[in-house]
């Protein structure tokens, strides 16, 4: 068996999430179908992190095992020939010994994008989350800094989350504005279910002046999901990139250019 690793971009608007589900259109199902056509045999792909319905990916990382011999270009061009327009394989390479798309990852980067203006956008439909009240971006950024570091994220965890522990290490979180778009960039060793969307919902309420900036830290300390804001919509959420130890040679991250220089690797 040869293990291949790939970077995958997708628009999640018309998908019922990443994971294969009978009778539903999912990213995993269309990707496996396309790769199986190239391989001329069934294949199974393993992703770095499953995304929910409506969530997008700038770069999801997957691996697959196969005995079929093809050039990297053949896998790349062949897969994209058979994929629908809302999914693309960005790159393909051989995996180093011991590599696993999920378990070898040391950090994940997510981006949440908010359109902050009175009118919704037709061109950005289902690509951003619309919020018409004016948001105080500086207030949101200041509030979010209490989340950096090692914390119990129970207050920002979905009720049905199956993770064994709510503890995660947040490497950084930034909130900034460009025109009418407000972006929340987050990087952590891993995320509990709905963690980014729950944080985004809380920060938007703080940005609207419904709560003081200190509310975010209070929620973190309370460890009670019922006290936090509602889960924000999935449309503005993007899996931006996945980080691995340098020995695996997986460094094809299109988001590197917009990350702080110290975010390229995490020890």
Secondary structure layout plus pairing:
Elements: E1 2-10, H1 27-39, E2 45-47, E3 56-66, H2 72-82, E4 87-94, E5 107-115, E6 129-130, H3 137-144, E7 149-152, E8 167-178, E9 181-188, H4 195-207, H5 215-222, E10 237-243
Parallel strand pairs: 3-10, 5-6
Antiparallel strand pairs: 1-3, 1-4, 2-3, 5-9, 5-10, 7-8, 8-9
Helix pairs in contact: 1-2, 3-4
A few lines on this structure:
The chain has 267 residues and is α+β, with helices and mostly antiparallel strands. It has helices at 27-39, 72-82, 137-144, 195-207, 215-222; strands at 2-10, 45-47, 56-66, 87-94, 107-115, 129-130, 149-152, 167-178, 181-188, 237-243.
Task: Describe what this molecule looks like in 3D.
This protein is an alpha+beta fold and 267 residues long. The protein has 2 domains: 2-104, Alpha-Beta Plaits, CATH 3.30.70; 107-239, Alpha-Beta Plaits. The protein has 5 helices and 10 strands; from the N terminus they run βαββαβββαβββααβ. It has helices at residues 27-39, 72-82, 137-144, 195-207, 215-222, and strands at 2-10, 45-47, 56-66, 87-94, 107-115, 129-130, 149-152, 167-178, 181-188, 237-243. Strands 1, 2, 3, 4, 5, 6, 7, 8, 9 and 10 form a 10-stranded mixed sheet that branches. α1 (27-39) crosses α2 and α3 (137-144) crosses α4 (195-207). The radius of gyration is 19 Å and the shape is globular.
């Amino acid at each position: 068996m040869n293990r291949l690793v790939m970077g995958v971009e997708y628009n999640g608007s018309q998908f019922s999430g990443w994971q294969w589900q009978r009778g539903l259109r999912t990213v995993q199902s269309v990707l496996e179908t396309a790769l199986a056509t190239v391989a001329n045999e069934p294949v199974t792909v393993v992703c770095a992190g499953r995304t929910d319905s409506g969530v997008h990916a700038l770069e999801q990382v997957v691996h697959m095992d196969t005995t079929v011999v093809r050039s990297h270009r053949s896998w790349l061009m062949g897969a994209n020939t058979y994929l629908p327009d809302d999914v693309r394989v960005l790159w393909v390479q051989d995996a180093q010994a011991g590599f696993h798309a999920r378990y070898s990852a040391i950090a994940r980067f997510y981006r949440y994008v908010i359109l902050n203006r009175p009118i919704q956008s037709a061109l950005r439909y289902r690509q951003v989350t619309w919020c018409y009240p004016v948001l105080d971006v500086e207030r949101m950024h200041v509030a979010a800094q209490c989340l950096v570091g090692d914390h119990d994220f129970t207050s920002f965890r979905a009720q049905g989350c199956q993770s064994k522990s709510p503890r995660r290490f947040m490497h950084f979180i930034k909130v900034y504005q460009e025109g009418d778009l407000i972006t929340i960039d987050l990087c952590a060793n891993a995320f509990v279910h709905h963690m980014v969307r729950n944080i985004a919902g809380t920060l938007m309420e703080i940005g609207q002046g419904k709560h003081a900036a200190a509310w975010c830290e209070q929620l973190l300390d309370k460890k009670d999901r019922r006290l936090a804001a509602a889960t924000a919509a999935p449309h503005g959420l993007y899996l931006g990139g996945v980080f691995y130890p340098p020995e695996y040679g997986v460094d094809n991250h299109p988001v590197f250019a917009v990350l702080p220089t110290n975010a390229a690797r995490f020890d």
